[in-house]
Task: inverse folding
């Protein structure tokens, strides 16, 4: 490589290819090394929910974190609620849970790449930003669409389904025993202002 | 020894690549920590190309990629960002390859135009790639980069002014496909060329139409995609337009066309745009208007 | 689902086409009496878990709520009349038939419905009376597990107790009760085939609130009698699409049915007796498709009445809002009704009943769907207010808000929603009919049913009166009416009646008082298609009662053979 020569010099640099190749090789090598390092430190709990269920405890935690971000603060979220209402329900269509797991992982990877941590390590506001930066809030929910559309259809809408079929959604909907919840037959007879 | 100059060759400086990589890596870490959209550091690195050449953007793209690899989270967002940066800087360099410190700057108008033109194509390309690879639809990807375009425009104007005062820290290396040149001469001072500007404008119009048109068509097609079937759409259109008039028939046909083919048209749009650009180029060259090559460089071939 | 069962023909005494309440109750009734019964059902059999899936699909706007059973090519149809015949949105082909997604309302018809011609000079008389059917009504109520309270001053006469205690009135019923009382409009408990206590090995109602896709089993579906029939040795073959019936050379008996199975083969099934139980649209269609040299206008159609006199139930709804809470959507069914206007003193306006909704204002959707940016843009362009334009500028893609700004549809207020629905009778008219559209074919190349239906003057007058009554009630309640659904541009209801009607005259009817076809001695029909008049009440209990009665007649025929 020549030093900083003035324009107009009659001498030009010789043999540019090897230098550039070397440089790119160095970059590539560093990248591979960094990648290996990154993957090495990226391993997480892989405790499966059950033999047949594609989701693991880590997925449930991530989904709970997302639920915490998308539900209003007036709604309490805990891991067992998300686990039962989302992951342990009857699978609506074959392959739904596989896709749910896939979309959770897509969100995790995006969060890791662009926000520096897994969703469980981010604040609720930042988690919403993760979803917004993936454009999940700007697309229509499509089961067979792009990643953003699939995240909306599977992860987001499953969590919203869990919410609106649970009495936890009462602050939002005003309904004590919402459709989808086997809450018995007391609520429909009760005068308003009953237990909140 | 004379090294020939390709008319539209790209200038790459290993030093600036390395600097770009480092800055890119650092800025990406910064933006992830601060939860700032990554398009901003990317835009800064593209803007830097106006000051010190496209090498820094090449490095910046590498820096982004390395960062994501380091996190173990390489995804389509990585490719989208890298492609945007590379396409942007590459297009700017193609429009004028001599983005080197010490070289005369473009006039502000031309710089702005180059910014917007390159930005439109780069954004459309990145959005198209992400859509085709299944990351997110064209319209969301396209809209996301618009703030980045703004940053580049501002940065380009600044960077352009800086360029003359920045010392040439690293030597440039020419593109590695040497061609024989006739002779060399001292570089001529840059001046704003109306014809070049007009050609740039034409190119820009096509690019902006591509970007804006594809965003609009894609958003519309996705909205229409909510209808489960063509029949449902026809019912809705019937209610909207009424029946029996020419306007109604036209309206329904347009809606049904977009419903079925909107997505396909967006996917094929680069082909379409390529055809339009080539036709324009042919048109331009047969009318003795300045060729893109003249836009790229108005120097005569050099020799030593 | 059942893909591996044997779908080849077998020896049988009775071959029944269709496994809805009509077919299933007939099958059970005959199998219980020791007969060999085979049921051919075009649709699939659902498992218990499928009902949970269906419930989720029902509640989520991005799922097709009919994905489990809808096949538009197999079930293609044409709609030609004023009323859009949205056949496949309402008529379900599966084991259990349309009862898989019905609301389980089971009122009886009233005595006047059987004597329209004698009493009012309208429509025609049934060849049987309400009294003839009473014991079968009671039996059908026991079979289906109807819960109710005998508190209806204008209800049809009954002595048999309801098998189960009815559900108490809802809070919103109590709001209506005052208003109705002042107007002299009686309210009564709605009879329903939904368990108020554990019954017949099925759970009591758990309050899921999605009756159309009940996962608890508390709501009766004909799957109950399919299972019971099988326990008594009946064979039910699903995914067996009957293509046509074949009669003998004399045209006096049906010899066999031809049916197709998913693997593409067709089979011929013979039997001693045949029962068509495919509902008010498919039953006449199958007869028309089974034309032969003896029956050029369609099997059993020497009267020309097959497919004619189609009736449905026109309905209207008045939606309103109140300043006080109305507690909607805590349960999915109707708890109160009124038959105050069922038995008009003279001929017209006609009969209608009222039901008081517990599910005013749907709460499905919300943030699950993103409203299209295009429609918002269109709105801003057509009516450009400052806020609309600002909306579009700051948020061009109409992004959905999450977190504290999350939107879910709500019944919260003020104002709070209430609504009253009314359904009434339609007179039988020959021009309302099911024919064959030979320009369109189904998945086996057979002409699809063409449905022509329009409201006549009687139906319109009746429902106009109904709307007036609803408006009066809302006014008395102090509720502000927000919207009214009328008969104009209405779609076809879920009840399809009259297309193979009962009668004593073989030249004006298709089946006799026993629901045996006049033309063929071993062909019977169990369906709402046999109703000569529609009445103004949900038909399924009557379908069940008639099926049980017809099964007895078939049993007598088989035993005497």
Result:
């Amino acid at each position: 490589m020549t030093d900083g020569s003035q324009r107009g010099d009659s001498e030009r640099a010789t043999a540019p290819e090897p230098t550039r190749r070397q440089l790119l090789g160095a970059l590539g090598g560093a990248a591979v090394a960094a990648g290996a390092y990154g993957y090495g430190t990226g391993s997480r709990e892989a405790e499966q929910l059950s033999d047949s269920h594609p989701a693991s405890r880590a997925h449930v935690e991530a989904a709970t974190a997302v639920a915490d971000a998308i539900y209003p603060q007036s709604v309490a979220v805990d891991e067992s609620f998300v686990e039962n209402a989302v992951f342990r329900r009857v699978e609506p269509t074959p392959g739904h849970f596989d896709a749910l797991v896939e979309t959770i992982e897509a969100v995790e990877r995006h969060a890791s790449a662009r926000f520096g941590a897994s969703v469980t390590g981010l604040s609720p506001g930042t988690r919403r930003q993760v979803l917004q930066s993936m454009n999940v809030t700007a697309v229509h929910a499509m089961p067979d669409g792009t990643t953003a559309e699939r995240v909306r259809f599977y992860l987001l809408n499953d969590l919203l389904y869990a919410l609106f079929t649970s009495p936890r959604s009462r602050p939002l909907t005003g309904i004590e025993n919402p459709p989808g919840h086997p809450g018995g037959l007391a609520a429909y007879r009760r005068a308003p202002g009953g237990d909140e | 020894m004379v090294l020939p100059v390709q008319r539209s060759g790209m200038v790459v400086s290993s030093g600036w690549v390395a600097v770009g990589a480092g800055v890119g890596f650092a800025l990406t870490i910064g933006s992830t920590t601060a939860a700032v959209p990554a398009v901003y550091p990317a835009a800064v690195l593209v803007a830097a190309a106006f000051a010190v050449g496209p090498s820094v953007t090449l490095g910046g793209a590498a820096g982004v990629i390395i960062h994501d690899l380091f996190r173990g989270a390489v995804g389509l967002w990585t490719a989208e960002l890298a492609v945007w940066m590379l396409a942007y800087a590459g297009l700017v360099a193609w429009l004028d390859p001599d983005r080197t410190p010490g070289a005369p700057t473009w006039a502000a108008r031309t710089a702005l135009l180059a910014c917007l033109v390159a930005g439109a194509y780069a954004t459309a390309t990145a959005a198209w790639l992400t859509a085709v690879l299944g990351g997110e639809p064209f319209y969301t990807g396209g809209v996301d980069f618009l703030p980045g375009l703004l940053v580049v425009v501002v940065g380009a104007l600044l960077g352009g002014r800086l360029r003359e005062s920045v010392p040439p820290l690293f030597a440039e290396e020419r593109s590695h496909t040497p061609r024989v040149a006739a002779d060399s001469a001292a570089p001529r001072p840059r001046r704003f060329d109306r014809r070049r500007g007009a050609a740039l404008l034409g190119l820009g119009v096509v690019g902006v139409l591509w970007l804006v048109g594809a965003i609009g068509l894609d958003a519309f097609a996705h909205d229409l995609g909510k209808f489960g079937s063509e029949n449902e759409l026809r019912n809705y259109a019937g209610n909207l337009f009424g029946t029996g008039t020419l306007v109604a028939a036209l309206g329904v046909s347009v809606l049904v066309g977009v419903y079925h083919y909107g997505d396909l048209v967006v996917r094929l749009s680069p082909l379409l745009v390529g055809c339009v650009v080539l036709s324009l180029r042919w048109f331009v060259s047969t009318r003795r208007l300045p060729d893109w090559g003249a836009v790229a460089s108005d120097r005569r071939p050099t020799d030593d | 689902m059942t893909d591996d069962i044997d779908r080849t023909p077998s020896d049988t005494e009775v071959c029944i086409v269709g496994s809805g309440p009509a077919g299933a109750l007939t099958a059970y009734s005959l199998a219980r009496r020791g007969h060999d019964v085979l049921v051919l059902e075009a649709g699939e059999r659902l498992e218990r878990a499928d009902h949970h899936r269906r419930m989720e699909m029902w509640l989520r706007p991005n799922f097709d709520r009919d994905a489990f059973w809808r096949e538009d090519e197999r079930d293609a149809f044409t709609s030609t009349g004023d009323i859009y015949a949205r056949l496949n949105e309402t008529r379900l082909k599966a084991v259990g038939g349309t009862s898989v997604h019905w609301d389980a309302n089971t009122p009886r018809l009233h005595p006047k419905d059987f004597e329209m011609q004698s009493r009012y000079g309208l429509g025609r008389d049934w060849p049987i009376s309400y009294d003839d059917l009473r014991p079968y009504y009671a039996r059908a109520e026991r079979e289906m597990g109807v819960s109710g309270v005998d508190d209806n001053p204008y209800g049809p006469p009954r002595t048999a107790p309801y098998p189960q205690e009815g559900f108490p009135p809802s809070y919103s019923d109590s709001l209506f009760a005052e208003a109705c009382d002042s107007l002299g409009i009686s309210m009564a408990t709605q009879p329903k085939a939904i368990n108020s206590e554990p019954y017949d090995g099925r759970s009591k109602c758990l309050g899921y609130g999605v009756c159309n896709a009940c996962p608890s089993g508390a709501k009766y579906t004909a799957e109950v009698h399919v299972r019971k029939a099988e326990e008594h040795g009946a064979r039910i073959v699903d995914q067996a699409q009957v293509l046509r019936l074949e009669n003998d050379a004399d045209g006096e008996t049906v010899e066999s049915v031809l049916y197709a199975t998913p693997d593409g083969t067709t089979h011929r099934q013979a039997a001693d007796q045949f029962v068509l139980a495919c509902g008010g649209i498919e039953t006449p269609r199958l007869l028309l498709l089974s034309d032969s040299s003896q029956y050029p206008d369609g099997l059993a159609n020497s009267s020309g009445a097959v497919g004619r006199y189609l009736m449905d139930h026109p309905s209207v709804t008045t939606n309103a809002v109140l300043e006080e809470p109305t507690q909607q959507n805590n349960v999915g069914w109707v708890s109160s009704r009124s038959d105050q206007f069922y038995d008009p003193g003279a001929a017209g306006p006609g009969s209608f009943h009222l039901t008081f909704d517990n599910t005013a204002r749907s709460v499905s959707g919300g943030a699950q769907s993103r409203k299209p940016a295009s429609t918002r843009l269109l709105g801003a362009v057509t009516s450009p207010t400052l806020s609309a334009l600002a909306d579009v500028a700051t948020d061009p893609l109409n992004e959905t808000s999450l977190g504290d700004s999350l939107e879910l549809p709500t019944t919260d207020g003020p104002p709070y929603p209430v609504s009253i629905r009314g359904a009434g009778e339609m007179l039988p008219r020959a021009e309302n009919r099911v024919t064959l559209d030979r320009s369109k074919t189904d998945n086996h190349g057979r002409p699809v049913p063409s449905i022509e239906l329009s409201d006549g003057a009687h139906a319109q007058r009746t429902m106009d009166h109904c709307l007036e009554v609803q408006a009066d009630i809302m006014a008395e309640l102090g509720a502000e009416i927000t919207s009214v659904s009328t008969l104009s541009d209405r779609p076809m209801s879920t009840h399809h009646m009259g297309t193979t009607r009962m009668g004593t005259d073989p030249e004006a009817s298709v089946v006799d008082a026993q629901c045996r076809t006049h033309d063929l001695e071993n062909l019977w029909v169990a369906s709402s298609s046999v109703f000569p008049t529609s009445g103004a009440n949900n038909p399924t209990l009557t379908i069940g009662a008639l099926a049980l009665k017809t099964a007895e007649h078939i049993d007598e025929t088989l035993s005497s053979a």
User: Anything to note?
Assistant: Chain A touches chain B through 51 residues (CB under 8 Å). The first helix of chain A runs from residue 16 to 41.
